[in-house]
Structure formats: structure tokens, C-alpha cells
Specification:
- Helices cover 46% and strands 11% of the residues.
- It is mainly alpha-helical.
- It folds into four domains: 4-71 and 235-309, HUPs (Rossmann fold, 3-Layer(aba) Sandwich), CATH 3.40.50.620; 80-232, 3-Layer(aba) Sandwich (Rossmann fold), CATH 3.40.50.620; 320-371; 378-463, Orthogonal Bundle (Arc Repressor Mutant, subunit A).
- The strands form five sheets. The protein has a three-stranded parallel β-sheet with strand order 1-2-3.
- The longest helix is centred in the N-terminal third of the chain and has 16 residues, at 17-32.
- Glutamic acid binds at residues 8-10, 42, 190, 204-205, 208.
């Protein structure tokens, strides 16, 4: 049997990083077993679902590279209403479901009583049983369809992350599977879909643990083999609270893209958030899919750690291909108003500075002063620019002007004799030189930086 997993987002907003992790684990599990990873858009909530959100979700998955393989086979629940109707009919015919004509008032009364007595809400008054007389069918009420849940015993499963879970059937309602207007309800659609899509492993957030026994009973009524279930614990914010936009947490995957996180770093970070393989922190998705097993997923919630995310991102930036980084940096440099023109190749700049940044925006800033001198910050000036600096820089510019070969080595060779001549230490040359040329004291090796910026431009900046 082909291992088949799915990611089933509801398109009611942005793509949450918790959702991306769920998708990642589902994808990795399928990859590991050479199976299939499917995508289903759970858009039956017509009021809250939007096409815009579908697109945001697809873009987000596309950005991290998690859905490309089956784009043409995406299942949309709204396109499956006929199929759901057919299965409702089947359940009715087989006696696994029944019509219920309760009015709103009756249901409200039942709810009150259930709250008082702590029982299941619906009193099953329309549930047909041998020897039971059903109420008279009222006028003017369209019935809902309810599922005949088992009355006693337990519904249990071995969760692949959480272990044994068991719920007494008495605690479960005869849930509505089709509303009075004929539309199917959530838990029912999920079962029909998982069945039709051949899902063997349902991997999802643990906010769905309560739905699972309801779904299991529907699977059983349909005579289907149960899939395995794996419920992933939540992701908490850095304070240990549920991660949420309202608490100011970075939640939407697009925000991470804007922050300058690389998609492979995002996946690497999310992979480790709640799963471990020894001490491995930095790895590729090939390694991850080879290693991934649900038994290594932690059963307790994990906490966001933005420092770690940035560290992993920095490692992936170092490992990234420079030509690719060029494409990623151009729009960011444009945003900073930095023109990428002239003979200075961005790829060469990146090669020199890429190990100094933990995100792409910081990397863009590292590249920017090669093209346009930065405005020096006051603290740097106070620290490194003394009263002799201006004149000394002019004297050094004269030395630079005389160089016939312009290279990091030839520039470097000027340093020691110049410092000896001026009677200063290297720091008194290097830092003001950085400020004079780059407008910032934070640069890599100054000889290499000057070599790359080019003689003409260096002299223009120093003399300007
Ligand atoms: N649509 C559900 C959600 O976004 C997922 C349901 C499932 O995976 O079974 O939370």
C-alpha cells in the first residue's frame, strides 16, 4: 500500500507557520516512504473561505517548495458536494444515519440540560431503535442528517505521536453530517475525502484530537480501513504562549520571507521544531526526508526561538549559490534605493560578505555600501574619526592613487609602511579608512573591500 499523506488547510487567512510545519512533516513522511503527499483545500465554510487565501496558501507552499509535485491534483472540497451527498445517502440507507427534525428551541433546551448534567448534547430523540416510537414528523421543518454514533464502549487509537488515546462513546454526540439545507459538515467531509484520496496517514495539528473519534466512527460505519493518526503538538511563542498574531508573533509564512529568511532555512528550522535526529541542526531536505520518522516527533509543544532561526538562516546563506543570492538581493537593494550598476558585480560582493549576515535584508545592507557610501552613524564617527583622520585619509588616498596594480595584496602592502610613517597603529588607519570609503566601520577586511569597489570610486569617495 502506498503511504499517502495530505495537508488540508482551510483557506480563511494567511498560511500559518504551524501549518507549514504540518505540511512539512506530512510531506517528509510521504517522501521517506516513497509515497504520495496530497493537498486538499478545505473550503466548505463558504463565509470564511476566500480565493485570495487559497492563493496565499499555494504561494506559501510554493515558496518553501512543498506542493509543486501535485499542483494539478489539488482537491477542493467545494467541488465534491455531489460525492458527499452520495455518501450521506448511503449512510442513511444502511442505517448508519437518520433524519432529525428537532427545532432550534428543542436543541437549545437540550444544550442547557447537557451543560447542567455534563452529558452529550443531543438526547437522540430521533434516533431509530428497535421498539422505540419516534416523534411525529413536524410540519415546516427541514431535517438534518445525524450520524448514529456507537452508544457504548470506547473509540480508541494509537496516535503515532501521542500514543494511546481513548474516548468513551457516551461522550460523543450523534453529530450532524448534513445540515437542513443539505450541505455536509466538516468532520464528515474530512472522512469522505481521506477515504477517497486513499490517505493512509493523517498528520495534523493536535487541535483536531477531539475530531478524531468522531471521524473514526464514520470511517468504521463506511466499512473502511482506518488510517493511522498523528497529531502534532502546538508551536508556542518565545514566551511559551500559543503563537498568535494578536500577541505580536510572526505567524504568516510570508512575513518570514519578508524578513529575509531562505525557504530552505525555514524548513530546516521547522523540521527541528518538535523533531530531532541526534544533535543535527543544519541539514538539507534530502537528509531530513531520509531521517524523518514520526516516532521522533516530540509529544510536547515546542517554542519558537528567533535567534536559532537566524543562526540556521545564516548557515544556509553561507551555503547558498551566489548567483541565486543575486536574484534574491536585487529587489531588496532596489527597496533600499541602491542602484546595481557599473562594473562591480553583485555576485562578487556577495561572495565577500555573505558570511556576515543572518538574513537577506542584512545581507543587502552589507552589499549596499559597495555601491553607495553609507551615511556614517554617529557612534562610529565618535569612536574612530579623530581630529587627524581627515588629513590622514587624504595622505593615504595619495598612496592609493599611486598604485599601478589595484588588488587586495597591493593595497595591503601599503598599510604597514604608511602606519610606520605616521607613527600610528593599524586600527587608526583601518577604521577611518572604512568610514571614509564605506561610511561604516563594519566591513570585512578593508583591503579586499577597497579592491572590489575599485580605484576610481575609492578615490572619488575619499576625496569627495
Ligand atoms: N482544515 C483543517 C485545518 O486547517 C485541517 C484538517 C485536517 O488536517 O484533518 O486545521
Amino acid at each position: 500500500m502506498t503511504v499517502t499523506t495530505r495537508f488540508a488547510p482551510s483557506p480563511t487567512g494567511y498560511l500559518h507557520i504551524g501549518g507549514v510545519r504540518t505540511a512539512l512533516y506530512s510531506w517528509a513522511f510521504a517522501q521517506h516512504h516513497r509515497g504520495k503527499f496530497l493537498l486538499r483545500i478545505e473550503d466548505t465554510d463558504l463565509e470564511r473561505s476566500t480565493q485570495e487565501s487559497v492563493e496565499i496558501i499555494l504561494q506559501g507552499l510554493n515558496w518553501v517548495g512543498l506542493h509543486a509535485a501535485n499542483q494539478d491534483k489539488i482537491v477542493y472540497q467545494t467541488q465534491r458536494f455531489d460525492r458527499y451527498k452520495e455518501v450521506v445517502k448511503q449512510l442513511l440507507e444502511q442505517g448508519h444515519a437518520y433524519l432529525c427534525y428537532c427545532s432550534k428551541e428543542e436543541l437549545a433546551e437540550m444544550r442547557e440540560r447537557a451543560e447542567r448534567e455534563g452529558t452529550a448534547t443531543y438526547d437522540r430523540r430521533w434516533r431509530p431503535e428497535v421498539g422505540k416510537t419516534l416523534p411525529e414528523i413536524p410540519q415546516g421543518i427541514e431535517p438534518v442528517v445525524r450520524f448514529k454514533n456507537p452508544l457504548d464502549g470506547v473509540t480508541a487509537w494509537t496516535d503515532l505521536v501521542k500514543g494511546e488515546i481513548s474516548i468513551p462513546n457516551a461522550a460523543l454526540d450523534d453529530l450532524i453530517i448534513a445540515r437542513a439545507d443539505g450541505t455536509p459538515t466538516y468532520n464528515f467531509c474530512v472522512v469522505v475525502d481521506d477515504l477517497d484520496m486513499g490517505v493512509t496517514h493523517v498528520i495534523r495539528g493536535d487541535d483536531h484530537v477531539n475530531n478524531t473519534p468522531k471521524q473514526i466512527n464514520i470511517f468504521k460505519a463506511l466499512g473502511a480501513k482506518l488510517p493511522e493518526f498523528a497529531h502534532l503538538p502546538m508551536i508556542l511563542n518565545e514566551q511559551g504562549k500559543k503563537i498568535s498574531k494578536r500577541s505580536g508573533d510572526t505567524v504568516a509564512i510570508t512575513e518570514y520571507e519578508d524578513m529575509g529568511i531562505l525557504p530552505e532555512a525555514m524548513l530546516n528550522y521547522l523540521a527541528r521544531l518538535g523533531w530531532a535526529h541526534g544533535d543535527d541542526e543544519f541539514f538539507t531536505m534530502e537528509q531530513f526526508t531520509q531521517w524523518f520518522d514520526l516516532k521522533d516527533v516530540s509529544a510536547s509543544p515546542s517554542r519558537m526561538d528567533s535567534k536559532k532561526l537566524l543562526w540556521i538562516n545564516g548557515e544556509h546563506i553561507k551555503a547558498a549559490d551566489n548567483a541565486r543570492l543575486v536574484d534574491l538581493l536585487i529587489p531588496r537593494l532596489q527597496k533600499l534605493g541602491v542602484p546595481i550598476s557599473g562594473s562591480l558585480k553583485l555576485e562578487d560582493v556577495i561572495a565577500l560578505v555573505k558570511d556576515r549576515a543572518q538574513d537577506l535584508n542584512a545581507l543587502a545592507n552589507e552589499c549596499a555600501y559597495f555601491y553607495v557610501k553609507a551615511t556614517p552613524d554617529e557612534a562610529d564617527v565618535a569612536k574612530h574619526w579623530d581630529e587627524d583622520a581627515a588629513a590622514r585619509m587624504q595622505r593615504f588616498a595619495d598612496k592609493l592613487a599611486q598604485l599601478e596594480t589595484w588588488s587586495a595584496e597591493s593595497i595591503h602592502d601599503l598599510f604597514k609602511p604608511f602606519c610606520d610613517e605616521e607613527g600610528i597603529k593599524m586600527g587608526k588607519l583601518g577604521m577611518p579608512l572604512r568610514l571614509a570609503v564605506c561610511g561604516t566601520a563594519k566591513t570585512p577586511s578593508v583591503d579586499a573591500v577597497l579592491a572590489l569597489i575599485g580605484k576610481e570610486e575609492v578615490l572619488r569617495r575619499m576625496r569627495g
